[in-house]
Design a protein that fits this description.
Length: 132
């Protein structure tokens, strides 16, 4: 799967805060085996709602946490078997650019993203800039 993350939707930013997948962009290679794993997760009801802790008790508390925006990071970070990690986080200044708000960045991520700021063009404000 190729995706971008939604760092601006992290409810309580901290170094171990879960970060969801941005809902506007996702590329996947279909796999019946992976689909069966997702069905199993859904049938078991692995989303903890009271209190709202999310998928597996960890991946929640951000916008879209009950949807694929929460189950995908849960799957790839906690469930996918060793050797079957085919996910990649793409540069969100190039793919699915959402006009980040640098005033809502976290202390963990420059402009709310963990990718290399120089590679992402943060020194060049025409590449990835605040959309206001």
């Amino acid at each position: 799967a190729a995706f971008t993350r939604d760092y601006n939707s992290v409810k309580d930013p901290c170094p171990d805060a879960p970060v969801g997948i941005q809902g506007g962009f996702l590329v996947v290679k279909p796999s019946l085996e992976v689909l069966d794993r997702f069905k199993t997760i859904l049938r078991r009801g692995e989303f903890l709602l009271d209190p709202r802790k999310g998928w597996g008790g960890k991946f929640g508390g951000f916008y879209g946490d009950m949807t694929f925006q929460g189950i995908l990071p849960y799957y790839y970070e906690m469930v996918a078997p060793e050797g079957e990690h085919n996910e990649i986080e793409l540069d969100r200044c190039i793919y699915n650019q959402m006009a980040d708000n640098p005033r809502k960045s976290t202390h963990r991520f420059p402009r709310a993203t963990p990718l290399d700021p120089e590679k992402m063009g943060f020194s060049d404000t025409t590449k990835c800039r605040d959309g206001r």
